[in-house]
Specification:
By secondary structure, this protein is α/β, with parallel strands linked by helices. It contains eight helices and seven strands, in the order E-H-E-H-E-H-E-H-E-H-H-E-H-H-E. Helices cover 36% and strands 12% of the residues. It has a seven-stranded parallel sheet, sandwiched between helices.
Length: 300
């Protein structure tokens, strides 16, 4: 039991955040570290074999929500392929070691460095996963980028294109390559954002891509859930304590987690448990839906 962590789930808890110069920010620089497998009751996550015998791809699995999801998937019995960027090599190594430690080395884990803005890299991701694991049962598209901008005329066109290439075009590339290999009963799940519903004024390009993710997910579900039996869903979180200050304005950092009804930012484990649910048989009658994990903000 880790009762000392209960404070981090209480209203008003605000982790000390420091600015980082550029994205993607590094989780290793955060203090205290975000919680990956300790739940709000202060206990370690208790697995029950929900993903036994499955294999999953989790993009951006080296840190934050992606790492927590990877740890819980592994604890639930899934073998993994995780992606990371060239800047995150050290974090990827730590993530792999942590997953193996948590599962006593029982899970197969493949770590792959990719630039998922490029279609050929996305195709290679699927090929390498199938070659390594032999099958693909769950796809979790979690990677993304954002950079704050407070006035649209000053938003660099290059940033707009990079955000779309990273956050939505890559999702299309990966799904296009993956679907022929995904069997009935398998799942495709997306990490979206509360911002697709509320429209963050500092994140116009990011918000636009998150809205696109939800539209893409719903249309894809309608296309394949009946014919192929592949369920598609999304999670729409608010900021977690793993979110990098490298991509936020000073004002957003100062108000971090304080503007939602629960009065705190979420922990990665609180989003990861939803991805476990959506990838498991527990959610067998759910497709085309969005789970809002946002500290109590009501979404219509």
């Amino acid at each position: 039991m880790h009762m000392k962590y209960i404070e981090q789930f209480q209203k008003g808890y605000k982790p000390p955040l420091q600015e980082q110069p550029d994205a993607p920010g590094l989780q290793k620089k955060l203090d205290p570290q975000p919680l990956n497998n300790v739940t709000a009751d202060g206990k370690l996550y208790k697995a029950s074999g929900k993903l036994e015998g499955k294999s999953a791809i989790i993009t951006g699995g080296d840190s934050g929500i992606g790492l927590s999801t990877a740890i819980l998937f592994a604890l639930e019995g899934a073998d993994l392929t995780l992606t990371y960027t060239s800047k995150e090599k050290d974090e990827a190594k730590v993530a792999e070691e942590e997953i193996k430690k948590e599962t006593n080395g029982k899970r197969k884990v493949q770590m792959l460095e990719f630039d998922l803005r490029k279609e050929e890299q996305c195709i290679l991701l699927i090929e390498k996963h199938i070659s390594f694991h032999g099958k693909l049962d769950a796809l979790v598209l979690n990677h993304g980028t954002q950079n704050a901008n407070t006035y649209l005329p000053t938003l660099p066109t290059e940033q707009w294109h990079n955000t779309f290439d990273t956050n939505i075009h890559s999702f299309f590339y990966i799904c296009k390559a993956a679907i022929p290999h995904i069997p009935p009963g398998a799942t495709i799940n997306f990490n979206a954002s509360i911002n697709m519903a509320v429209g963050h004024p500092e994140l116009i390009d990011y918000t636009a891509t998150k809205g696109a993710i939800i539209g893409f997910m719903r249309a894809l579900s309608n296309q394949i859930v009946g014919e192929k039996g592949i369920r598609c869903n999304a999670v729409a979180p608010v900021l977690t304590c793993a979110y990098s200050p490298a991509t936020m304005s000073k004002q957003s950092i100062e108000n971090f987690g304080m503007t939602v009804p629960m009065g705190r930012a979420g922990q990665p484990v609180e989003i990861a448990t939803a991805f476990v649910y959506l990838a498991s048989v527990d959610s067998s009658d759910i497709s085309g839906q969005v789970i809002h994990i946002n500290g109590g903000v009501a979404i219509e």
